[in-house]
Amino acid sequence: METRKAIQKRRAVKHFDPAYVISPEDQRELLELTMLSPTAFNQQNWRFVLVDDRQQRHALWTAAWEQQQVLDASMLVVLCADLRAWQREPRRYWQKAPSAVQDFVLPAMATYYEGKEQTMRDEAMRSCGIAAQTLMLAATSMGYESCPMDGFDFSEVARIINLPSDHVVTMFVVIGRGTKEPWERPGQLAFTDVVVQDRFS
Ligand SMILES: Cc1cc2nc3c(=O)[nH]c(=O)nc-3n(C[C@H](O)[C@H](O)[C@H](O)COP(=O)(O)O)c2cc1C
């Protein structure tokens, strides 16, 4: 599917066929496409928790205020990020780059994040937001429906998935075969409400 078409077609779908199974090959392809998303300093700080286990799904459904798509979608991905990815053998993110590039980028990366907790957290949200959209557009282009979600208790989700203390949960994306058309887009803003020319007045 053409990218423009996929962007227009993607909607947040909330009703899924619980019997529908996405093949392991398609799941793998969706995640591999998502891993091509851009990240600052190529740090690939996302960690995608793929939840198949029914008990885990049920626990997450409870933590997500019993939103049915958490149970019924074929695929549930909890998008998490490693806040310290920039520190974890960062040379591997640049191993194929010329050594002059490595010598510049690796110290710059350390300087950018060292001691800056808010910056690390912001980076986690940026990376996962972009990855979520890649995942949803890939799903659309492969004929699936999806829904992004943050309607859940973050601490409870972290507990359920055994989140390491230096990681954060950012959002869920669920994917499957939709059973109900979403309602018409309920209230898109006008172009001029959103696009600012040069500077805010
Ligand atoms: C970060 C984020 C969190 C969301 N959380 C939920 C959610 O918990 N439950 C839900 O049904 N929809 C959720 N949505 C879907 C939005 O309601 C939906 O994207 C929005 O109404 C626009 O509709 P569209 O995606 O069909 O264009 C979320 C969307 C985003 C981007």
Provide an overview of this structure:
The protein has one domain: NADH Oxidase (3-Layer(aba) Sandwich), CATH 3.40.109.10. Helix 1 crosses helix 6, helix 2 crosses helix 6 and helix 3 (54-63) packs antiparallel against helix 7. The protein is of the alpha+beta class. It has a 4-stranded antiparallel sheet with strand order 1-2-4-3, with helices on both faces. It has helices at 3-9, 24-34, 54-63, 69-72, 99-113, 117-141, 154-160, 191-194, and strands at 46-50, 75-82, 145-149, 167-176. It binds flavin mononucleotide. Residues 11-12, 14, 67, 147-151, 171, 182, 185 line the site of flavin mononucleotide.
Short account of what is shown:
With 201 residues, the chain is α+β, with helices and mostly antiparallel strands. The chain has helices spanning 3-9, 24-34, 54-63, 69-72, 99-113, 117-141, 154-160, 191-194; strands spanning 46-50, 75-82, 145-149, 167-176. The protein has a four-stranded antiparallel beta sheet, with helices on both faces.
Ordered list of secondary-structure elements with their pairings:
Elements: H1 3-9, H2 24-34, E1 46-50, H3 54-63, H4 69-72, E2 75-82, H5 99-113, H6 117-141, E3 145-149, H7 154-160, E4 167-176, H8 191-194
Antiparallel strand pairs: 1-2, 2-4, 3-4
Helix pairs in contact: 1-6, 2-6, 3-7
The chain binds flavin mononucleotide.
Residues 11-12, 14, 67, 147-151, 171, 182, 185 line the site of flavin mononucleotide.
User: Helical segment tally?
Assistant: 8
Overall pLDDT score: 97
Note the main sheet.
4 strands, antiparallel
Structural class: alpha+beta
**Strand line-up across the major sheet:** 1-2-4-3
Percent of residues in helices:
40-55%
